[in-house]
């Protein structure tokens, strides 16, 4: 059983490292700060996992006293790592919501930081431990409500449509966080009995629901980063349009739009498509909803009789070359 949990710990560290690396690669090519924030978040996940490993295998692995009141191990390290994760969670949320981040917004995670420090000064008790970890779940739930507030009450339909795709992500995060809190409520007061019943000593620092949330974040990060990198390299290898602002390109674009009867708005959309912009980026730049953007792209494909962006790029090249 000890070997299983050791392997499990290594698996999590490797997954976080892969997620962090993929995010940094995505940031280096896209220059979107959300990938930088995500990559740094996973680095803090790795640090947190090392703290858990040290507590489970070196501190308690062979010397766990079932009669000792549960207490916070390495409180300073946990507070620093937890605060770092909280700050990056906030930055990621603001990036997804397209909200400007200011120094004053740091008051939110700093209030949880100060509360965590205060809790470490209290006498050891089950309630103290519940509160210490509970405020972390409360923080994540608050960020989820922050998203749902804008989704529900924003009066700008285009803005609501632009953040709608993140609904599943925040809903899943909210649900798993509730399970994290429930697991703490059940296991912390009964940790001694649980360890004695299962005859294992390497789970006293572990919340499996929290691991599920971290794995969910990792899978999402790797998946999205792969799509970003694939899109960039795929289009770079198939497109020769490095200067889309030249007068020559403008003439070529006008000819192409005239040939396929594209509207002025569709001309703006295809211009951005040739710059390798995603639907979301086109939506942001033209101040239209993501749904409207997809409709324009679909109409362009239909008029040009193509099914993919790569086919559109090749058709554009063939059309202007033969002109």
Automatic annotation (TrEMBL):
Domain HTH luxR-type: 255-320
InterPro entries listed in its UniProt record: Sig_transdc_resp-reg_C-effctor (IPR016032), Tscrpt_reg_LuxR_C (IPR000792), WH-like_DNA-bd_sf (IPR036388)
UniProt keyword terms in alphabetical order: DNA-binding, Membrane, Transcription, Transcription regulation, Transmembrane, Transmembrane helix
CDD domains xref list: LuxR_C_like (cd06170)
Signal sequence segment: none
GO molecular function terms attached to this record: DNA binding
Membrane-spanning ranges: 6-27, 34-55, 75-97, 106-123, 135-153, 165-182, 212-229
GO biological process: regulation of DNA-templated transcription
Aminoacyl-tRNA synthetase found in the keyword field: no
Name of the protein this chain belongs to: Spore germination protein GerE
Lineage: Bacteria, Bacillati, Bacillota, Clostridia, Eubacteriales
Gene that encodes it: gerE_2
